[in-house]
Amino acid sequence: MAFAPKPGCPMCGIVSAASAAPVSPSSPSNASSPEILWRDDNFTVYRETANPVSSKGHIIVVFNLHVPSLYTLSSSDLPLLVTLRDLSHRLLTSLQTSSSSPLASPVATHPQNPLNATQNLRATRDKFRIGFITPPFKDNKIPVSDHLHAHAYVLPADRLGWWRSVAYSSVAWYEVDDLIAEIREETSNNRVRSGATPRPIDFVPDAGARRGTADGIETTDAGLLVADPERGEASPNLLPPTPGTARAQLHPGPSSDASIPHLQV
Known about the structure:
The chain has 5 helices and 6 strands. It has helices at 10-20, 78-97, 121-127, 176-188, 246-250, and strands at residues 35-39, 43-47, 58-63, 128-133, 149-154, 173-175.
């Protein structure tokens, strides 16, 4: 299996424990185990309580698969990154509205709708920070560097400290919105980076997810997203990885000849 759990990995241990022992607000919690806020087929989210960077809320969004690096992601993972951003927004909002009590539903049991014009993306950028710490930098309080995970916290980062601030500064921090925009720029050959005001493309999760050559050869890598049929999602794992990429080395496909059929005129 590609991206199989790695023995001894702390993040793989959290994912495995959350899957084996569902948590509810009424169930007793182990002081040494993380507070699981959300779990679905793609992510396990826990609240960072030992060393949060913000007193208002700091969560860790862990990829269930043992994805080793941010650079393993491809354009087909755009819907997954949008889901990560929207999920983080909802959980941080819940932490603010019910900071004195656990979340009402820590396990994913209802649909995950993307942010829309009502829940403006500008609010996300003004109140929250959601993104990744890029190698070789890392949070020295959460020193896992080979299992991909995102940090999301409520501004301001009043518990950051000067040493940890390097990892959360522009030197090492990769905002998830910037990552989404840069991938879309690369696949569409158009400048789509969003500014302070979100553009319509920001509300289309799979915009830019497919790529190909001018002669109709599709080079889209198989995505990591686990589709939810109940939400009408189609499986993204339709094509083999592009030869020569990091994904191809970890999960080689049966063929590299996937192509878009040519029109017969």
